[in-house]
Every structure is written in structure tokens, then in C-alpha cells.
Amino acid sequence: MADVNRGNRPLSPHLSIYRPQLTSITSILTRITGNAMLISSLLIVWWFLAAASGPAYFAIVNGFLTSWFGDLIMFFSVLGLWYHSLAGIRHLIWDNAKMMDIPTAEKLGWACIGGSVLLTLITVIVV
């Protein structure tokens, strides 16, 4: 028989007391950067197709990608590329059942974030 007191039960307070861990945030960021890299790669393909189409269309696309907005998109694409690469290395380490304790996993998460920012700045300055 169905429970007639179902509506009287308290709701789980998980949303009000849950604090996201760094490992879950970095995992979500890995998925976001993977999808963002797909979009930026489509922009680069668009640029190549415009170059093959002719000088008039290429000037439009190149003007967009070299504008401040295009530079901003490409900057965050480089950041996403570095972050996604470092997070992939972190997952390879975890796949070998290494460094999986919570303090070390959090250090690896901060290393991915800090390393991606540092490598992005180096890439932007050098290139």
C-alpha cells in the first residue's frame, strides 16, 4: 500500500548545507573547457574556410577574430586548452590510483588552475 504520510516528511537539506569540493569544481571546469575548445576550434575552421573563400570574406572573418572580442575569445581558448591538458594529466595520474587522497587531490586541483593561468600568460607573452 502507498505511504500516505509521504508529504509530511522533511526534505533533504543537501542544497542548503552542501559545499562544493575543489575536485568537483575542477571536474566541471574540465567538461566546460572541453566544450569551449570545440567552439573555438570551429571559429578557427571558419577562419581557414574564409581564407580559402576569397579576400573579401576573409577580411570580414579576420576582422572579427582579430578584434578585441576575438582576442578575448582566443585568450580564453588558450586558457581552456592549457587547463584541459593539465586536468587530463591529473586524470591520468588518478587512473593509476596515485595521489587520490583528499589533500593531494586538492593540491593537484590548485596546480591545474595555477598552472593553466601561468602557461596561458607565458603563451600570450611569447606568441
From TrEMBL:
InterPro entries: SQR/QFR_C/D, Succ_DH_cyt_bsu_CS, Succ_DH_cytb556, SuccDH_FuR_B_TM-su. It comes from the Bacteria. Its main location: membrane. It is a multi-pass membrane protein. It is found in: Membrane. Pfam families: Sdh_cyt. Heme binds at residue 84. Its cofactor is heme. The heme is bound between the two transmembrane subunits. Signal peptide: none annotated. One of its GO terms (molecular function) is electron transfer activity. GO terms for biological process: tricarboxylic acid cycle. GO terms for cellular component: membrane. Part of an enzyme complex containing four subunits: a flavoprotein, an iron-sulfur protein, plus two membrane-anchoring proteins, SdhC and SdhD. The complex can form homotrimers. NCBIfam families: succ_dehyd_cytB (TIGR02970). Membrane-anchoring subunit of succinate dehydrogenase (SDH). This is Succinate dehydrogenase cytochrome b556 subunit. It comes from Sulfitobacter undariae.
